[in-house]
Amino acid sequence: MQDPHCHSSSIMVERPAETAFEIMADGLSQGRWTLGSYERREIEPGLVVGTSLFSGRQTYVRLKVDRDRLLVDYDVGPSIDALRFRNMSRVIPGPVLNMGPEQCVVTLLSWRLADQSEAAWMQTSTSHEAEMFLIKGLLER
Known about the structure:
This protein is of the alpha+beta class.
């Protein structure tokens, strides 16, 4: 079944969960793998801005980090005033999934806006799937 409301992308990484979580919870580190908000700079702690490789426009992101649960909520928008919850990441430690302690699964979830076009939703979904391989590559180098 294709979920019409939420897209998920996951990948197994050969690194401990805490190590992988750092790339998901650090707004500046994300600027190395997020295609929609690349080459980020920090506005204030927890708030970053980067450039979309698709449109060239600025994309702002506020991170809400839950280290205990290895979870991050991301508010995203074209300006600080337009930020809204759109994405979430979660890192699952390998042993939880009967994997080794030096492995984990990184997951990115995105929710579709009711007025988002099919093309825009496809771009979001496809780019998040590609980003999984960028995350894996950065972590396993």
